[in-house]
Amino acid sequence: xxxxxxxxxxxxxxxGFEVGRVLxxxxxxxVGPFIFFDHMGPVNFxxxxxxxxxxxxxxxxxxxxxxxxxxxEIVHRDSVGFHQTIRPGEVNWMTAGRGISHSERFDSIRDTxxxxxxxxxxxxxxxxxxxxxxxxxxxxAGQLPSxxxxxxxVKVIAGSAYGMTxxxxxxxxxxxxxxxxxxxxxxxxxxxxxERAVYIAKGSVRLNGERYETGQMAVVSPGAMPSITAVxxxxxxxxxxxxxxxxxxxxxxxxxxxxxxxxxxxxxxxGRIQLPVDDDKEFIxxxxxxxxAAQPM
Length: 297
Fold this sequence. Notes:
The chain has about 300 residues and is mainly beta. Helix content is about 5%, strand content about 50%.
């Protein structure tokens, strides 16, 4: 068996735009250390994007977030002091560790409007790194290893794949790859990891002959080496790595310990997690139990 299971994206309204939520899912909570995977948009914002569309300051613990755009711009601010405009093809890797807060706003397209299309993913930290110091790193698109040939382009966002290694430092073995294929072009899913998945961000592909459409994630069976053939021009994300063990997830908090999540809840409610520098006038309050869907970005 080449494909272990197929995870559908479920549309979620975030109050201004929709996302397609893929992970976590009832039948598969994680792929390697990837514990959360949202496809933002695609959406075209009109001019005068309302501020309610922004993601106000909110906290995280125990994970790294990766914001990766195909279209649009998002302005990131965090409690470590980073202020970064996120643009297509760049890597913006924020490690929450023992606690961070950040906001994601549409300052740069607020007046004129514009497109937004991209992926927000979370990577659970291994237990030894769950309480690491919070940090943020940014890499321009040209700093990431890539390869292009007739009808195919490959960019390694994080980890190692296809003989290339990203400069992004990770806390556990993983890979995250952006593929673009012309219609009819074929390539193999990279190996070397115990857990792997293929997400179709645009278009449709065949994996060893079986067709998969936009918004579907196909989890690859261990040891299988399926080929990907684009039925039409397609964007495909490959992701996975080595498992880090079971994780608890509550709202924006991820931890191997339920008690640590309770502490994070108390810390946010009491104001013990610092708000983002230059964006400390508002925040998302701690939700009541049960929590709403995890806040992306």
